[in-house]
Amino acid sequence: MTKLTMFSRRGFLAAATAVAVSTAAFGAFDAKAQEVNDIHFIVPGGAGGGWDSTARGTGEALTKSGLVGTASYENMSGGGGGKAIAYMIEAADRLDNTLMVNSTPIIIRSLTGVFPQSFRDLTPIAGVVAEYAAFGVPADSPYKSFTDVIEAIKADPSSVKFGGGSVRGGMDHIVAAYAVQQGGGDAKQVKYIPYDAGGKAIAGLLSGETEVISTGLGELLELHKAGQIRILAVTSTDRIEAAPDVPSLGELGINAEFVNWRGYFGSPALSAEKADEYAKILKDVQATEEWEVVRKRNGWEKFYKPRAEFSAFMENQEKTVGDLMRELGFLK
Prior knowledge:
By secondary structure, this protein is of the alpha/beta class. The protein has eleven helices and ten strands. Helix 2 (50-64) runs antiparallel to helix 10 (289-298). Residues 7-32 have low confidence and may be disordered.
């Protein structure tokens, strides 16, 4: 069985080490570094999801650190993210100050034909954060462990509905199906309800439309701390710093590690000079205190891949994820 990591654990640690070395080598952010006057962030989904929190968190750190003058945001839902991608292409000549956030779903949804474009139709800028997925239930749920969920599915697949902020066959669905499969259940029997972004998926969980949510850890952390949602498991091998009280799938005996990246793209008409400038400030911000506040608040892992490295990474991921999706029955 292929391991469902969006980059290997060894590669992840290497990336984290590279960030640390880079920070040590260049020191704290130099206040004289070139600033960008303004950035407009396009979010391909609704408010409250991982894309939304990543764009707004990035903008917060960039403006508070002085790397960018102002940041604005535009939620552009539709077509599983395809509407925003199409806009970036069609309006390319007018989007010199615009970056679109995206993540692993741009690979998955391109493979499944949700939209006809791929990351190759845009200008990759940089990968900036990584995040483990998590499975959560309402505070009063009878499920006390993720293994309870798997046993319930084995007994009666219709008794458990997963919700997530992506389409059927999308990332949240694949992660849930993979974890259930690795826990001894049937991936194809996982019942999944799609929502437009994580915020609506959380609302569906709390209203009783679904029993379990599959989403990014950062989207559940504050609700978990507030006692509204219990996170049953994180898709890591070991417990992680951001959620020390939450079991990992690894310690439950489920070998289904998953880490999702998030990064930024410019329009296909963006000049190489401007793209390099954006990549630089996204690197510089990671050495600031403002970024650390945002990163820790959201439970993000350290991750940075500049333009060429980011593109090569996605090329490799496309093959790895495609092979895995065929194995799970999501692609023919």
